[in-house]
Structures are given as structure tokens and as C-alpha cells.
Amino acid sequence: MTHKEAIKARSIGVDVLTLSASPIPRTLEMAFVGIRDLSMITTPPADRRPILTHVGEYNEAAVVEAMRRELLREGQVFFVHNRVSDIDQVARRLGQLVPDARIAVAHGQMDEGTLERVMVDFWQGRFDVLVCTTIVESGIDLPTVNTLIVDRAERLGLGQLHQLRGRVGRSGQRAYAYLFHPADQVLSETAYERLRTIGDNTALGSGFKIAMRDLEIRGPAISSVTTSRVRSPRSATTSTYNWWPKRSPTRRASSCPRSCRSISTCPAKRTCPRATSKPTTPGSRPTADWWA
Q1: Distances (CA, A) of 216 to 1, 96, 231, 242, 286
Q2: Which of 8, 68, 220, 286 gets the most CB atoms within 10 Å of its CB?
Q3: pLDDT for res 286
Q4: Which residues lie across from 55 on neighbouring strands?
Q5: Are 242 and 217 in contact (CB under 8 A)?
Q6: Mean pLDDT, consecutive 10-residue segments, the chain of 292 residues?
Q7: Nearest Cα to 75, choosing from 156, 143, 135, 18?
Q8: Under a CB-based contact definition with an 8 Å cutoff, are residues 218 and 224 in contact?
Q9: Backbone φ and ψ of 2, nearest 5°
Q10: From CA 109, how far away is CA 26, in angstroms rounded?
Q11: pTM of structure
Q12: Residue 13: left if φ>0, alpha if ψ -120 to 50, beta else—which one?
């Protein structure tokens, strides 16, 4: 955003066209309130197919099955593990699970020359699986990579998950995306909503819906609109839609006499805005898989 504002400052009065594959909440909110005009391109590229998306608890059997299926059709795999400290251990474990897979590691702390060689070798087909961080979330166009596996997906933002899923399925082949979260960890309300949103919106051209939901979850980044409501983009009626960010489970509600961690035990649950704004229980986690 800083770079765009600097470019506009050089030529006052010049119209600027901004193109984005996945609108960020701030830009989207500016379009809704009329500060900027908005046009949508919803036509997907020719022969592009929706990505089958699986969201659920981490399962090594599912990881092995996904990797072997991609190897059988002579494709490649992105395995995203966004922690450099133990990324090499993850790569070694995958090598034990699938011994016939040629595995490489790539992350942003590698020196430029080594990282370039790894990416070029992967592009030329010398490796089958690339264990990497989120450095591949944008600017990567490899039609042979049609399986994405994301470890600890609950730690990533909704925009990151959407961008990562867009790294696969860039050819006419069926692509698969596996978004895993730990089996022994209870998800926060925000993490649960992010995973549910990315799992529900798998159709081509669903980036706008995902951006709208991201705006609802996080709220706009413009302080002047946090005290008012804006017109709902979902209809042309005079109804309004509240874009306030949702409260976290540990934040004190304005009408609560104490900091509650559970709605069921809240003494003011009938008037608490956090208790009445969402029908699901904070801290719950997905119990079902979402497939396209």
C-alpha cells in the first residue's frame, strides 16, 4: 500500500488502476464505502478446474496417500511448513514415509544462490516434493505442481491460504489442496472461521467472497469506519451490515463483569455481545471435512 500511495503522489490527479487477485480488507472496504471504484473479473482461464480442498486434522496416512497419488501421475507436490527451525526434520520424516520421493527444502533464510538452484532444479523436475515456507504463496507458476499440503494451516491468514491454494491447479489437471491443523489442539474462534471459509469457498472466482469474509473476521484497517456501519454489498436494499471484527475468546466483553472464557459459564450471556453474535462455541474446531 505504501508503494501505491508513493506512485500516486508523484502525479496529482492521475487515475490509478490497481489489480489484485485477492483484495485485502482495507482496499475492499474502501470500495464498499465509495472511496474507490470496484470491478470484478470472474471468468477463469480456459480449462481451469476447481481445486478439491480438504480441511481437517493432520494425518500422516492422508499425506502419504496424497504424495503417492501425485507421484503416480508424474506430478509434483508443495509441502508448506512455515517454521524454518524444524523444516529439515519435516523433510526427513517425509523421506521416511515416502522413500521413493525426491525431496528438496526451500525457505527465505537460505542464501540467494542456494535458493535459486533449488527452485530451478524443482522447476526442471529433479525433485518431486518441495518442503517450503510461505515464500511460494505468490509469483510461482508451475503447471506440474498439482498437490498442495499445508501443515499448521490454522497459523496462516485467510489471504495466505487462498494464495497458497492458487499455486496448484494451474493446468488442466485436477488439483488437490490439504489444509491440516494439529489433532491435539483446540482451534481459536478466528482460526476456525478462516479454515471454514477456505474450505467452503472452492469454486473458481471465489476470491471476492473470501475477501469479504476476511473483512468480516478481521475488520477494516481504516479507523474512521470502525464507529459506523456501511451498506451491505450483498444486496441493493437499504439494509446494513456490521463489519466489526469479532471478539477473541479471551477478550473482556463490554457488558461482562469478568473476563469469560466460556459462553456457557458467562453470568451475562443473555446480554453479552460476544455470546449473542455467533451461534457456535468459541474455541471449537472443525469436526468435518469440506470438499469441493
Answers
A1: 20, 42, 13, 8, 19
A2: 220
A3: 43
A4: 179
A5: no
A6: 76 74 69 79 80 93 96 95 95 96 95 94 96 90 94 91 90 92 90 92 84 79 41 32 36 44 50 46 44 44
A7: 143
A8: no
A9: -65, -40
A10: 30
A11: 0.67
A12: left
Amino acid at 134: T
Between the alpha carbon of residue 162 and those of residues 70, 149, 203, 205, the distances in Å are 21, 13, 12, 11
Reported as a single tens digit per residue, the pLDDT across 103-156 is 999 999 999 999 999 999 999 999 999 999 999 987 888 999 999 999 999 999
Our CA angle for 46, 50, 52, nearest 5°, is: 150
Neighbours of 33 (CB within 10 A): 15
- The CA distance from 170 to 177, in Å, is 13
The pLDDT assigned to 102 comes to 96
At 149, which amino acid appears? I
> For residue 135, what is its C-alpha cell?
515464500
Query: Which one-letter amino acid corresponds to residue 63?
Result: V
Please give the single-letter amino acid code of residue 129.
Answer: V
Superfamily of domain 52-204 in CATH is P-loop containing nucleotide triphosphate hydrolases (3.40.50.300)
C-alpha closest to that of 165 among 173, 175, 180: 175
- How does strand 176-181 pair with strand 52-57? parallel
- Between CA 235 and CA 232 the distance in angstroms is 6
Taking CA atoms, 212 is separated from 91, 208, 251, in Å, by 36, 6, 24
d(CA 29, CA 116): 38
Question: For residue 56, which phi and psi values (nearest 5 degrees)?
Answer: 180, -170
Cell of 67: 504424495
Q: Which grid coordinates are listed for 246?
A: 469479532
Q: What is the DSSP letter of 119?
A: H
Ramachandran class of 98: left when φ > 0, alpha when ψ lies in -120 to 50, beta otherwise: beta
Would you kindly state where each structural domain of the chain is located, as residue ranges?
1-42+207-241, 52-204
* Three cell numbers, residue 93: 520424516
